[in-house]
Structure formats: C-alpha cells, structure tokens
C-alpha cells in the first residue's frame, strides 16, 4: 500500500502546476506558443437564426475594428449593434451584435471578440472570409479555444472534460453530470485528496527531521498513517463506482434477448418510440443484432434487439443466435423477455434454464446484477396471472400491445 501512496504523496507535495502567466502585449495576451490570433464559427453549422463567430488572440481588437470601421471598439463585455463590412472592398456583410472581451477577463484569457450574425450560410461564409483577410488571423484548429483556456489557466483539465461532455450531452442525466464537472466538483475532490497527502508528507518529514526533539506533537506519525489509510479507503470507494460516470457519458448497453416470438422487437420499438425492428409472428424474423440509441428517463442507452435464442435452426439463424449470446456477455443490462402465456413451451424452458436461471445468486459471470426478467403478452393471460407452477425469479409483467405495465409502477420484485 505505502509504495503506491508515497508516489502520490510525492506528486501532491509538488503542488498543482501553476497556470501559465498571461503575458500582456498591448491590450491582450499572446496565444500559447505562437502569438497567432484565431477565429472560428463557435455555433453549429447550418441555417439558424443567430450564428456566433469568435476570435481569440492579440489581433482580436484589430479584427473587430476592421469589420466595424469607422467605429471604434465597443465597451468591454457589452453587446453593441454594428454594421459589418468587408475590410477589402467595403461591401456590407451583415448588421450584427458584437462583443469585446479584453484579456485576461475572457474565456481563453486572451483578447476575444464575438460576432453574433444572422445564421445564413452566405452571411457566415462572408464574415469568415473577411476575418481571414485581416493580418495576423488564421482559422482555429478543432478545440483550440478550449486548449488556450486550459494553457492560460482559465480551465482545469477536469473542467475541460466537463465542457466537452456538456456540449455533447443528449440527455438530462448527461447534462447534470457534465455541469457538475464543469463547475469543478471533481477538481475540488482531487484538490482535497492532494491536500491530505501533502499534510501527511509534512508530518512524516517533520518526524524524520525532528523525531528526537521534544517539540513534536505526540503521535504525529500515527496521525499521518491514519489519514493516509482513510484516503486509501476514499480512493478505493471512488474507483469502485462501477464506471457509472463513463456509462452515463457513453450510454448503457441494454440487450433485449429471449426465445423467438416472445416480443423482443415489440419491446425495442416501444422503448425507442419508433419502428426500429420488424415485428412478425413468424419465428426467426430478427436474425442480426439491431441497435438504436434511446433516452430512458434522462439516461442514455443503446438498445440491442437480438435474434431469438433457440436450437436446431439454419446456418444464418445460428449465426444470429451466436451474436446474440456474445452480446449477452457484453451487456450492462439484459432484458430477458418471455411470453407470459407460453412459459411451459420448450423454447421458454430452454431460455430459462440456459440464460435466466444461471444468472441467479452466485452466478460466476456476474449476470445476477444485470439481468431483468420481463414477461410480455400479459393481455393473453387469464385473470390469475402467469402460471403459478413456474419457478420464476422476480419479474416485470407487461403487454407491449396494450401498454399495460410499461409505466413506472409496482411490479413483482
């Protein structure tokens, strides 16, 4: 334990890297390593009401003056309406809102300017070409604005990751997680760990240097040992989160499996709210794995509709069954679907014996925590419910046809 922790202690003792200083040149700070001023369309491509074009670097003020001549720079951080013109020909380009952010009080820490123009492709293209004609400006590389903000100490590495996640967030849960990281939640946690390690190292060094003196507090080494062990427990708990953050970022892999004609494709269509899979009473309709991304109550998921698991079929369907079984091993969650009105059939019994029951308590492959049994076609059941003689684990009872049981309600758990 101590060898690995001492490595962390040594790194923490050096402290976090200080952000690169914002060396002023005129009214702004140079770009990291080059001094170039960059520009790019910061909003999305395509027709829209408003498009935002941003510049960053020491020539941002010159670019703003060139496109709004003869007007001078607007007040800092205040939107002003300006007529944009091509600096070469003087041809009007658009009437737009412009903003001026002198560094270091800007997103990147450099001088920045923003042009909020109308979002037509011709307008955006004309303004970008005009900026390209201003001396000292060049198109930005992908992610260069954020890279400059990181290099100049405006964003930490975890905040940069949170910003990227926020931009790509498609569900409410992803948005909330990204916003927490962008606000520095992970940075504060890591900083607390580093402070604990630094304090423990200081106590150990004090004991080594002054252990024979009477000026040291009693038990200082035991206190450092206790703090490091508590930190080890905290780090272990953080690492044993089953990769929840990564699953939330990339989406959970949900595999829908079961015997033929159990209603797997109907369930996938119901969850995705669109006809992703072909639904047919003919067994073996789905022969390959069909995938579709879905938003399940704010959480991202990738649904996989698999071929019906059965034996004694042709080579094409056998390949589909083989792929289905492979996806079962890779799944974060397995929705095992059975026909509630046909639990005694050979295909249902075989699926229960080979997939569902082996996933019970003590399962060596870990399926017990990631398999959910779904009994479909409840509309075909008599009033008494499923066959009481069937030895079933906890299950959900629903009907993809009528929608009964598909809403968050109490089920058989």
TrEMBL record:
One of its GO terms (cellular component) is mitochondrion. One of its GO terms (molecular function) is GTPase activity. Keywords: GTP-binding, Hydrolase, Mitochondrion, Nucleotide-binding, Transit peptide, tRNA processing. Residues 251-413 form the TrmE-type G domain. Gene3D superfamilies: P-loop containing nucleotide triphosphate hydrolases, Probable tRNA modification gtpase trme, domain 1, tRNA modification GTPase MnmE domain 2. It catalyses: GTP + H2O = GDP + phosphate + H(+). Its cofactor is K(+). It is found in: Mitochondrion. GO terms for biological process: mitochondrial tRNA modification; tRNA methylation; tRNA wobble uridine modification. Signal peptide: none annotated. Its main location: mitochondrion. It comes from the Eukaryota. Residues 26-35 have a biased composition (Low complexity). Residues 15-35 are annotated as: Disordered. Homodimer; forms a dimer in the presence of potassium. Interacts with MTO1; forms the GTPBP3-MTO1 complex composed of homodimers of GTPBP3 and MTO1. Belongs to the TRAFAC class TrmE-Era-EngA-EngB-Septin-like GTPase superfamily. TrmE GTPase family. GTPase component of the GTPBP3-MTO1 complex that catalyzes the 5-taurinomethyluridine (taum(5)U) modification at the 34th wobble position (U34) of mitochondrial tRNAs (mt-tRNAs), which plays a role in mt-tRNA decoding and mitochondrial translation. Taum(5)U formation on mammalian mt-tRNA requires the presence of both GTPBP3-mediated GTPase activity and MTO1 catalytic activity. This is 5-taurinomethyluridine-[tRNA] synthase subunit GTPB3, mitochondrial. It comes from Neophocaena asiaeorientalis asiaeorientalis (Yangtze finless porpoise).
């Amino acid at each position: 334990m101590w060898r690995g922790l001492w490595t962390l202690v040594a790194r923490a003792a050096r402290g976090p890297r200080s952000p690169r200083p914002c060396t002023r040149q005129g009214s702004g700070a140079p770009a990291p390593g080059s001094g170039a001023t960059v520009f790019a369309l910061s909003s999305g491509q395509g027709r829209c009401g408003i498009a935002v074009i941003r510049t960053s670097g020491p020539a941002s003020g010159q670019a703003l003056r060139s496109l709004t001549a003869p007007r001078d720079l607007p007040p800092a951080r205040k939107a002003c309406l300006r007529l944009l013109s091509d600096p070469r020909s003087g041809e009007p380009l658009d009437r737009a809102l412009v903003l001026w952010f002198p560094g270091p009080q800007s997103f990147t820490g450099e001088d920045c300017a923003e042009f909020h123009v109308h979002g037509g492709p011709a307008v955006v293209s004309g303004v970008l070409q005009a900026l390209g004609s201003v001396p000292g400006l060049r198109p930005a590389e992908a992610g260069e604005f954020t890279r400059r903000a990181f290099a100049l100490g405006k964003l930490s590495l975890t905040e940069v990751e949170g910003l990227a996640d926020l931009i790509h967030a498609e569900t409410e849960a992803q948005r909330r997680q990204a916003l927490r990281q962008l606000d520095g939640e992970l940075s504060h946690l890591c900083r607390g760990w580093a402070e604990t390690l630094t304090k423990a190292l200081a106590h150990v060094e004090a004991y080594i240097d002054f252990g024979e003196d009477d000026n040291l507090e009693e038990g200082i080494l035991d206190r450092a040992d206790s703090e490091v062990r508590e930190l080890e427990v905290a780090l272990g708990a953080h690492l044993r989160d089953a990769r929840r953050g990564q699953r939330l970022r990339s989406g959970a892999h949900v595999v829908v499996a079961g015997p033929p004609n159990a209603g797997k494709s109907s369930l996938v269509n119901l969850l995705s709210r669109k006809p992703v899979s072909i639904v047919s009473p003919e067994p073996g309709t789905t022969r390959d794995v069909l995938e579709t991304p879905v938003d399940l109550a704010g959480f991202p998921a990738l649904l996989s509709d698999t071929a019906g698991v059965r034996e004694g079929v042709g080579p094409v369907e056998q390949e589909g069954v083989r792929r289905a079984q492979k996806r079962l091993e890779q799944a974060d969650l397995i929705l095992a679907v059975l026909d509630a009105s046909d639990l005694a059939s050979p295909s249902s019994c075989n699926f229960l014996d080979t997939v569902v029951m082996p996933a019970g308590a003590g399962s060596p492959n870990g399926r017990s925590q990631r398999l959910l049994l779904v009994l479909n076609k409840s509309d075909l059941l008599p009033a008494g419910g499923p066959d009481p003689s069937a030895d079933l684990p906890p299950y959900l009872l629903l009907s993809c046809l009528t929608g009964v049981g598909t809403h968050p309600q109490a089920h058989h758990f």
